[in-house]
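job 3f2a | input accepted
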Amino acid sequence: MDIALVHNYLSKQSYWAKGRNKEEVITSMENAICFAVFDGKRQIAFARLVTDYVVFAWLMDVFVIDEYKSKGVGRFLMDYIMNLPSIQEVNGMGLRTNDAHGFYSKYGFHKISEPETWMQKIR
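job 3f2a | predicted structure (123 res):
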């Protein structure tokens, strides 16, 4: 993994992780299953998944660098993740997005049913 690329994208270009420091990026990667797509030796996409393999999985930090957007890289990455044998029996998978609902709906994601039952704690 190109940690410098991942950190730069998340902390400076993403809307969801602006300001995340390098140590936080590294810790988050160490405690997740990380995925990357490469063009030769150059990393062009990233995602990470946290799961207990039974009850829940959470997909985070999915990105494709700008010059590779709209070229099928995101679909390639999501196809790979969603077809992992180890997560096929997970009861539920979640993610958050401000702008890619249509993309993720193709993979079975939809708005949370019964949102009134969900709670969250934010630091």
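job 3f2a | The first helix runs from residue 3 to 13.
job 3f2a | closed
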